[in-house]
Amino acid sequence: MSKITEIEIVDFGFDVPNLGQVGAGQLVGFKKGAVTRAVRQAIAIRTDDGLVGEYVTNWCGTAATRGEMDMLCPFLIGRDPMEREGIHDDLKREIRQWSGMGQGPLDIALWDMAGKKYGAPISELIGGYRKRLPAYASTYLGDDNGGLDSKEAYAAFAEECYALGYRAFKIHGWNEGDAKREAENVIHVAKAVGDRMTLMLDPANQLRTFADALYVGRACDEGNYFWYEDPFRDSGRSAYAHKKLREMIRTPILITEYIRGLEPKADVIHAEGTDFVRVDPEYDLGITGALKTAHLGEAFGLDVEVHAAGPAHRHLMSAMRNSNFYEVALVGPDVPNMIAPVYTCGYTDQLDCVEADGCVTVPTGPGLGVTYDWDYINANTVNRRVFK
Length: 388
Description:
Blueprint: E1 4-21, E2 28-47, E3 52-56, H1 63-72, H2 84-94, H3 103-118, H4 122-125, E4 132-139, H5 151-164, E5 168-171, H6 179-193, E6 198-201, H7 210-223, E7 227-229, H8 239-248, E8 253-255, H9 262-270, E9 276-279, H10 286-299, E10 304-306, H11 311-318, E11 326-331, E12 359-361, H12 374-379, E13 381-387
Parallel strand pairs: 4-5, 4-11, 5-6, 6-7, 7-8, 8-9, 9-10
Antiparallel strand pairs: 1-2, 1-13, 2-3, 4-12
């Protein structure tokens, strides 16, 4: 039996060009000449018999998530890393007062370790059978800086994505919550590419009122959108409000991105608050937790859509029958995805990661199937902590 003897977590930074703050808050979008300094965490879990599990965060790379990881790491020391179900159950209890997002990256690293131990990709360990995943381009927020600054710009970018091979496209609109502007964009893009691309809309909770959400939802109906995601300022949590919205529009609703873990998602499904279910291996307590959500949705006859991009996300989706698209997020004209440049194996989630058929592949190497550039990580370290 292996025992975990050490966990190293490294915060490191990297620059993202042409990306800056758009509108109020800390949301980012195209801003020519600007540079955003992003920080992510690199995790290495080590055992007494030489096993190592690694993961570099993508979308949960925040100070809050790092604090939760620091809180949980001491509970892993001395544990058998192969007992992921028991670890999942114990950490879930320990993190019950907080968001739970710190649990996901640690669980993913444990799955990477298991794959390396058995010489198999995670997808094989969890019964994955889908080798190629249909992808959609998921845009940055709109801006007023010459990027996604108009409905014409969104339509032009959708055409660019279509030429790359994408057959699905998701709009994140502007940050002001202007329902009229959002609805006009929805209709314009549908007229431009709706006969060739599956379209989705995600206002990212920026619409101010239920009435605004209804107004834009009816535009989605007119444009024949595939789903309408997290529309308004309830922050994607109210099952009652979304049930009411579902009754008043035809476009399917997608919420639960901001509801962590199995039981709260089950409550939303039971309350008929959503048509699709969201899951993310980083957000939802790891691959262990995300698989539970995938099977929960399947039990209710619902599709479960994987949020965001990354190698863990691809392995997870490979084992999900009830999932439609892989989200290449976030992308836009003349600005890269905020994925840390730490892969030495050719893995990428940049805009051009899709092949001509609009699909991405699932890594085939042991564990996550990727190799990390620890020289780069160490050279750009801003904080390091080792638990023993």
